[in-house]
Design brief:
Strand order of the largest sheet: 5-4-1-6-7
Number of helices: 10
Order of helices and strands: EEHHHHHEHEHEHEHEH
Number of domains: 2
Shape: globular
Mean pLDDT: 96
Number of strands: 7
Distance between the termini: 25 Å
CATH architecture of the largest domain: 3-Layer(aba) Sandwich
CATH class of the largest domain: Alpha Beta
Length: 206
C-alpha cells in the first residue's frame, strides 16, 4: 500500500517538553533533589495517568496526601505546566511544513492531558496544519495502549498500512508497528528528514 499519511507525536518531536525546564528553578539548582522528586514523587507513571484522563485535581490531591512537603511543587505541575515547554523543535516544524506542501496527509497522536492541551493549541500555531489531533486525555487512553491507536485508525485512517507513525519513544513506535504502521523512532530532525526521504514522502536532497 502506498504511504500517504504521516502521524506525529507532539511532545519530544515537535515541542520541547521537559519538566526540568520548570523544576530547575523550583529546586534552586539542586539537581540531585530535583531528580529524586521526579523519580519518586511526580513520576512518569503519575503523569501518564493524567495523560490517560485522570483529572489534575484528583491526581495532585492524592500525591499531596503522601508528600505534603512538596505541595507547592506538585501543584506547579498543572499551575505552571507551560514552563515545562521551552518552545517548538524548529527543525521538525520545518519538516511538517514541507510535508504539507508536498500534499502529504498530516495527523497527530499525542499523550497529553485534555485539561492543558487547549493552551498548547493556542500557543503553537503549527498545530493547525494537522487535519486531526487525537489527544489521549480526551479518550481516557494513552500510548502505547493499542486501543488509542485504534481510535486514530477507526476515525481518521482506515488502514494503518497507509501511514507512517513518528514518536520519540521506542515502545510507542513498537505498538504502532504491531498494528501495521510504518514506525519511525524520532531522534532529531535531520534523521527524520532522511527517513521520510527514504520512504518517498519528501524529495531527496532538499
Amino acid at each position: 500500500m502506498r504511504l500517504d499519511t504521516v502521524v506525529f507525536d507532539i511532545g519530544g518531536v515537535l515541542v520541547d517538553w521537559d519538566p526540568r525546564h520548570l523544576y530547575r528553578s523550583m529546586f534552586d539548582g539542586d539537581h540531585a533533589e530535583m531528580e529524586r522528586f521526579l523519580d519518586e514523587v511526580c513520576t512518569n507513571e503519575w503523569n501518564h495517568a493524567m495523560d490517560a484522563g485522570r483529572p489534575f485535581a484528583e491526581a495532585s490531591a492524592e500525591l499531596i496526601g503522601r508528600y505534603p512537603q512538596y505541595e507547592g511543587q506538585i501543584l506547579a505541575w498543572q499551575g505552571r505546566w507551560t514552563e515545562m515547554l521551552s518552545g517548538s523543535i524548529e527543525g521538525t516544524v520545518e519538516v511538517l511544513r514541507e510535508l504539507a506542501e508536498a500534499g502529504v496527509r498530516l495527523l497527530a497522536l499525542t499523550n497529553w492531558s485534555a485539561e492543558t492541551f487547549p493552551e498548547a493549541r493556542r500557543r503553537f500555531e503549527f498545530l493547525a496544519r494537522f487535519e486531526a489531533i487525537v489527544v489521549s486525555g480526551e479518550h481516557g487512553l494513552a500510548k502505547p495502549d493499542p486501543a488509542l491507536f485504534q481510535v486514530l485508525i477507526d476515525q481518521h485512517i482506515g488502514d494503518a498500512g497507509s501511514a507512517v507513525f513518528v514518536d520519540d519513544r521506542a515502545d510507542n513506535v513498537a505498538a504502532a508497528r504491531r498494528l501495521g504502521f510504518t514506525g519511525l523512532v524520532f531522534t532529531d530532525p535531520p534523521g527524520l528528514r532522511a527517513d521520510l526521504e527514504r520512504l518517498g514522502l519528501l524529495p531527496l536532497g532538499r
